[in-house]
Design a protein that fits this description.
Length: 660
């Protein structure tokens, strides 16, 4: 019964300028099961080309090659992939074993592509290698074997899927005479078991043990004769407990396992690449942590100075770069009261804003440092220091805002903790001269320090607090008017306060307290800084993506022959693409995890540094930063691997196998 028929096959190769080289001319052959055929001829005669056509590595030819009723000519890739996986086994002169895989894995790779369960793969490959005398070498790598042992591994790989046809290209070309005899005996046993074995060789010794000899010269059949001295005997036998059936395709799980093996073979290169990406990932996490930490810090500090029953109101600043607002006139205050009372009434509240529950406040920022100063005596010497922030004590403050002492009244002032650097730890109770210039007139007053106020956001500049009525009396004495810059509505319930806060936050004329405005300003600043840092981190991620693309592209070039081997045993384009994409996935996953670990280490270091230098650490980690890091790392790695994966999948198997 004919298993393989070749009818009027022609094969041409373009050589440029529309010229062609004819490799095969009108080839007509037929083969039966159980034959051991040698195709002989000089180099360049066309015998390897014929083997590539029979093996489905090349389907571009004229004529017909029919295997069990199916014509290979012009078949789509998926049909040829299935044909190579199920019907054909290749044995190469140079063995073409994958160097970073063990002997066992080199044999099971064909079953991996068929998604055979791990236990079945190992049992079948072990049994096959044992019959070939390699049972003690399963864990060795190809470079630990002799030439004959390598060729036996190649034969085991060709047989593992129980194909009907074995194609051996110069199977003994790289072996000594003794090993050649052993390999030929194995191939003869395979043929005697009922498989069609076709050997391409230029050796008459190899041809002499064949059942049939076909000679090719200049692409034409010049001899086709049977060996009358050929004797068939059955010695070799596969494990029949593994029935031949329809093969499945490479699964994602198997692809990832195979990708891990491939990456482990170049672990130093891949670890360094992942570390480079991890640095960018950790930088991104730290940038996000810095932005959120700074915002959280300012928000928390501002919240410490809020009273749930007090609603601060300021005129909205027209200068976005400054938190300061303008002063209030009496008419504007009356208008504000009317608007607030209208809102309260509309919301069903019976609370009314009156003069007795509307407190005034004043803020002056002394940026130039020449409008306010404090003069004190320390160690017998006069010390003069600018007051950069002058506040009237807001009703939102309570005892928890004091570090020590009590709230000031007439003839008293309060300072933030910066005063300790000027007067020492016993500053409370000391007398100081305060000089303030307002409206072109200078107010000078000797006052007692009654308390130290906790203003964490301004620890490195001097801030002074004074009672509003006391400051107003000093200004009035100079024939000046102290116009308030802050107003405070004292409500009776939090519900009333929330109504007014909502109204103010939605207004285009009013804003909240100084602390809230500072918090908003710092939030805007931190957001701007975070965006700038994120852009820098993004650039580093782009550089990392280019690095991954370059390394994977080089990997495809280095592993071209390996890709050819995989295609020769039935790997589809999709399988090759899946393997390389899995490598990209693993690189991204490793990079993301390493980036998280690096960010945690860096977070601890920066926290210690900031606490020692600033007294606080503007860093805050969110759990979703880690999820984002893994996601971004995977995205850039997978996207970077798309082109190398596509290039690997499109490689021509014949050209790939020729690559040295």
């Amino acid at each position: 019964m004919k298993q393989l028929e070749i009818k009027h096959v022609y094969k041409d190769y373009p050589i440029g300028n529309k010229e062609k080289f004819t490799a095969l001319t009108d080839i007509n052959l037929s083969f039966k099961k159980g034959e051991l055929v040698s195709i002989i001829g000089e180099s360049g005669s066309g015998k390897s080309t014929l083997m590539n056509l029979i093996g489905g590595l090349d389907s571009q030819f004229e004529g017909d090659i029919i295997v069990e009723g199916i014509n290979l000519r012009g078949q789509p890739d998926k049909i040829l992939d299935k044909y190579r996986k199920n019907k054909v086994g290749f044995v190469f002169q140079s063995f073409n074993l994958i160097p970073h895989l063990s002997i066992l894995d080199n044999v099971t790779i064909a079953l991996t592509l068929s998604n055979v369960p791990e236990k079945v793969k190992v049992e079948k490959a072990t049994a096959l290698l044992s019959r070939l005398g390699l049972e003690k070498m399963l864990k060795r790598k190809p470079n630990q074997l002799s030439g004959g042992q390598k060729q036996r591994v190649a034969i085991a790989r060709a047989l593992i899927n129980d194909p009907d046809i074995i194609l051996a290209d110069e199977p003994t070309g790289a072996l000594d005479s003794g090993t050649t005899t052993q390999i030929l005996e194995i191939l003869k046993e395979i043929a005697d078991e009922g498989k069609l074995v076709i050997m391409v060789t230029h050796s008459e010794k190899v041809a002499s043990i064949s059942s049939r000899i076909i000679e090719i010269s200049d692409g034409k059949i010049v001899r086709d004769e049977k060996n009358k001295n050929y004797k068939k005997h059955k010695v070799f036998s596969q494990n029949k407990s593994f029935p031949k059936g329809e093969k499945q395709n490479l699964s994602y799980t198997s692809a990832i396992k195979l990708a891990f093996h491939n990456m482990w073979a170049s672990k130093v290169k891949n670890i360094l690449m992942a570390f480079g990406v991890a640095i960018s990932i950790s930088a991104m996490i730290l940038m996000l942590s810095f932005g959120s930490g700074l915002t959280d810090y300012v928000t928390n500090v501002a919240s410490d100075y809020n009273n749930p029953l007090v609603v601060p109101v300021s005129k909205q600043s027209t200068n976005m770069s400054s938190p300061l607002s303008g002063s209030w006139t009496d008419e504007e205050i009356e208008t504000l009261k009317e608007e607030l009372n209208t809102e309260l009434k509309n919301q069903g509240s019976d609370f009314v804003v009156r003069d007795e529950n509307l407190k005034r406040g004043f803020t002056m920022i002394n940026i130039a440092g020449n409008l306010a100063k404090v003069t004190a005596i320390k160690d017998g010497e006069e010390v003069e220091t600018p007051i950069f922030c002058l506040y009237t004590t807001p009703p939102t403050y309570n005892e928890t805002n004091l570090i020590e002492g009590s709230f000031s009244g007439d003839g008293q002032v309060m300072f933030n903790s910066y005063i300790y650097q000027i007067l020492g730890q016993d500053a409370v109770g000391q007398k100081v001269d305060v000089t303030v210039t307002m409206g072109g007139k200078t107010i000078q007053q000797n006052a007692e320090i009654s308390a130290i106020v906790d203003t964490s956001v301004f620890e490195n500049i001097l801030c002074m607090y004074v009672d509003y009525d006391y400051l107003n009396s000093l200004v009035t004495a100079q024939d000046e008017v102290l116009s308030p810059t802050e107003l405070y509505v004292i409500t009776e319930t939090e519900q009333q306060a929330n109504i007014l806060k909502t109204f103010i936050s939605n207004s285009d004329k009013y804003s909240g307290s100084m602390e809230e405005r500072l918090a908003n300003m710092f939030s805007q600043m931190s957001n701007t800084i975070s965006i700038a840092l994120a852009i820098i981190a993004g650039i580093s991620l782009i550089v990392s993506a280019i690095m991954i693309l370059t390394v994977l592209y080089m990997s495809v070039t280095e592993r071209t022959k390996e890709i050819g081997v995989l295609k020769s045993i039935g790997a589809r384009r999709r399988d090759i693409h899946r393997i390389f994409t899995s490598e990209s996935f693993l690189i991204g996953l490793l990079s993301g995890i390493a980036g998280i670990l690096l960010s945690l280490v860096a977070f601890g270091i920066f926290t210690i540094l900031f606490n020692s230098l600033l007294g606080f650490a503007p860093l805050s980690l969110r759990w979703y930063y880690f999820v984002l890091a893994i996601g971004i790392s995977l995205i850039i790695s997978i996207l970077s691997g798309l082109y190398p994966s596509a290039k690997a999948a499109k490689l021509d198997p014949v050209e790939a196998l020729r690559r040295e």
